[in-house]
Amino acid sequence: MPARWCAVVVAVAALLCAAPSSWADPGPTGSGAPVRQPDVPVPAGEPLVLVGVPGLLWEDITPGHTPTLWEMAERSAIGNMSIRTATSRTCPTDGWLSVSAGDRALAAREDFGVCEPAPRPERTGSGAVVPGFDSYVRQNAESQFAARVGLLGDTVQRYGGSTLAVGPGAALGVADGQGRVDHYLAGVGDLDTERLEGVALAAVELPDLTRLYPEDDPFSTDPDGPDRDDVPQVDREEALEMLDGRLRTLVSMLPTGSSLMVVGVSMDSAPSQLTAALSAQVAQEGPAGPIGFLASESTRRRGLVVLTDVTATVLAELRMDPQAAVAGRAWHVTNRPADTGESVQRLMDFNTAAVVVGAAIPGFFSGLVAVQLLIYAAAAYALHRYSDGQRGKRVLVLSVTRIVALAGAAFPVASYLANLIPWWAAESPPTALLLCVLAADALVVVLAVAGPWRRTVLGPMTVVAGATTAVLFLDLCFGAHLQMNSPTGYSPIVGGRFYGIGNIAFATFATGMLMAVAGIAHGLIVRGRRRAAVAVALVVGAASVAIIGWPGLGTDFGGVIALVPGLAVTTMMIAGVRVTFLRLSAVVAAAVAAITLLSWLDYLRPPQERSHFGAFAAQVLNGEAGTVVARKLGAMLGTLGNWQLTLLAACALVFLFAVLYRPTNWRIGALQRAYEYAPTLRAGLTGSLVTALVGFAVNDSGVAIPAIALTVAVPLTLSACVWALEQEDEAPAPDPEPTENAHCL
To answer: Which of 325, 486, 612, 634 is the most exposed place for a label (fewest CB within 10 A)?
Structure first.
């Protein structure tokens, strides 16, 4: 009966997951623009105008200082934009080159901490040529993203359209592969309606918030590059008013029917944040509609798009098809609150959360490592210091050790549960985030030790592991909102992932699931129901693999590869089946075949709707997969340089196999004693270690996978070991349960 009920519950949950996966972004409110056939001339029409404003944030846009931008926000589509490029620091040149390539690009500079202005174009008639443009093309072609700088300009030229650039940065964005733009102006003051006639794409740079250029000539450059102390400092409110006035002048000369996009194309001297993005059509009364939040398939979240989406959106609006694929996806519009102030506040809150979490991550992981190492050291001392005599102290120390171990294991899931509370709206968001994580951790621990299961060897462990599994499973069902802007989730500023399950969350989820399955199986086996235990492992494991790998839900290519062997080992050990290399190889081959089929089916979808699976299949067919694999391999090996996580993983393994296996005055090692009370603990722990090892090899997060997996698995194992030792003071240990062919540790 328990197995059948478990199957029913998991099946219902899987059905629920299939529907809400689009709740985070219900999709476009209207049909997309039709795709034109290549090399068909563009019909004459109104221009698309792309305005790039480095450093523009939503907190800058107010009715008082930027009335033009605020009016546009009231009557058009708005959103946050992630501006991550090929480096963690996005300067204006990086941003404009990314627009040019439709992929993450960069501009090499001597000082990574200083943003350099774009080179001033050299005029050729009404147009201009960007000097040294071939160096940008070459640098990015050889970079890890192999960005094709000049793709946007080349595409417009191929369709017979013409380009206009206003400002050096804009010239970088719309120049063709040879660095040429058809028409060039130094500033908005030189622009008029006549110059826009016959132009397909106009790019305008409004650099008022960066002031990288000297005051006397706003578009001159220093060949040696700017010095940090030479960059003029201006009042931001004054700069915003000047910027808004220039935008108002620009809008006034745009023909009715023009498309207008305003994007915060980069940052400058400040740490990276989410910038502002607005999109509208120009009507007689000004920019207008459609009204809503911007979204795209790149992020699958309302109100969040990425910089590379700009290129895809421009080409879709112009109905042009690039010869090479772009990384971004065209914008579409989703619903938003009717009140503009509320909509803007939501975007600001989201950015606040991203900034706070980004700043907190180094300290969070340093604290996590320190706390885990402290737990291991204190537990090692307690297990040996009080293993003989002082029975009163021994009982107290063991009880405290068990609670502390459970709290340590619950810490990762608590970091996700904290996002159920709007801590970002507090007066001090960093403090509020920490308090919310601690409160969530305490709640999980109380749940683990409050019920009758606290008297069993794996009861509290199973509750913590089960809570970890359930929280992340449901989070994936409803759009992964708890992972976004979580210290152990993913950040829109970093831009590594925007939906699905992140690598650290995968390590937490997979370990929690395998340990929870081991705990449930123990409860069934002691009642003589081994077949039901195997059924639970298969059903829960299959549901976990499905949600991790399904495009649009977990969408984790490497996660499936890593979880399947660990799940197979755990299930075989629960069933009492010998774990052999041949059996594991067969399971892995089946998993690879399933992933290949999923990738192929995803590839058959339209390019703008593909997930990571379909995108990788396309890269394989295009011969680009080698670059992606090499980039991820390099990233994986590079994680070994993260001494904190490497130290954490090493110390966890030493504690597990040296301290817990080491005999004490309790006669045998604590881990071996726990195995005697609950043999399935060995199955869950072995499967977790296998998944962590494979995850290390196939994910670009590398050592973070085993480090986080052990952060969950080792404290849970410690809690079971402490329970087993507590029984020594109460009654003789029971006869070990037969564990034929199940010894892998």
So the answer is: 634
Strand locations in 323-428, DSSP E? Answer: 332-334
The per-residue pLDDT of the chain, averaged, comes to 83
Are 369 and 652 in contact by the 8 Å Cβ rule? The answer is: no
Identify the residue whose tokens are 């650099």.
207
Burial class (CB within 10 angstroms; exposed 0-12, middle 13-18, buried 19+) of 134: middle
Give CA separation, 471 vs 122, 480, 513, 603, in Å. 58, 10, 11, 30
Pairing of strands 77-82, 275-283: antiparallel
Distance CA 133, CA 141 (A): 12
| pLDDT on residue 386 | 60
Q: How far apart are CA 6 and CA 17, in angstroms?
A: 16
> What is the bridge-based pairing of β-strands 127-129 and 180-181?
antiparallel
**pLDDT at residue 252 above 70?**
yes
3-class SS of residue 682: helix
161 CA to centre of own chain: 37
Please state, in angstroms and rounded to a whole number, the distance separating the CA atoms of residues 3 and 66.
62
pTM: 0.83
Nearest to 2 by CA among 540, 468, 744, 745: 540
Token pair of 16 as six digits: 């629920």
Distances (CA, A) of 344 to 189, 300, 443, 542: 30, 19, 33, 42
- Model pLDDT, residue 729: 59
Answer for the pair 483, 489: CB distance below 8 angstroms, yes or no: yes
Between 33-47, 175-189, 250-264, 460-474, the lowest mean confidence (pLDDT) is in 33-47
DSSP state of 176: -
Residue 129: CB atoms within 10 Å: 18
> What are the respective helix, strand and coil percentages of the chain, to the nearest 5?
55, 10, 35
CA dist 153 and 172 (Å) reads 9
Query: Tokens 């040696």 sit at which residue?
Result: 224
The alpha carbon of residue 601 and the mean position of all alpha carbons in its chain are separated, in whole angstroms, by: 24
More confident residue, 157 or 619: 157
Residue 126 CA to chain centroid, in angstroms?
44
Strand 48-52 versus strand 201-205 pairing type: parallel
Q: Are strands 201-205 and 163-166 parallel, antiparallel or unpaired?
A: parallel
Q: How far apart are CA 442 and CA 209, in angstroms?
A: 45
For residue 68, pLDDT over 70 is answered with yes
- Which strand (E) or helix (H) includes residue 259? strand 259-263
Q: Within 13 Å of residue 42, how many CA atoms lie on the same side as its CB?
A: 25
Mind listing the pLDDT tens digit for each residue in 454-475?
889 999 999 999 999 999 999 9
* Rounded Cα distance, 322 and 326, in Å: 8
Length in residues, the chain: 745
User: Strand 77-82 to strand 292-295: parallel, antiparallel, or no bridges (unpaired)?
Assistant: parallel
> pLDDT per residue over 593-639, tens digit each?
877 877 787 777 776 666 666 666 776 777 666 666 666 666 666 66
Residue 227 in this model has a pLDDT that exceeds 50 = no
Q: Cα-flanking dihedrals φ and ψ of residue 419, to 5°?
A: -75, 0
Start-to-end C-alpha separation, the chain = 32
Query: In sequence order, what are the beta bridge partners of 159?
Result: none
Predicted pLDDT at 535? 96
Separation in Å, CA 347 to CA 275, 308, 317: 10, 19, 25
pLDDT over 70 percentage in the chain: 81
Contact at 8 Å (CB) between 729 and 395? yes
| Rounded mean pLDDT, 669-687 | 89
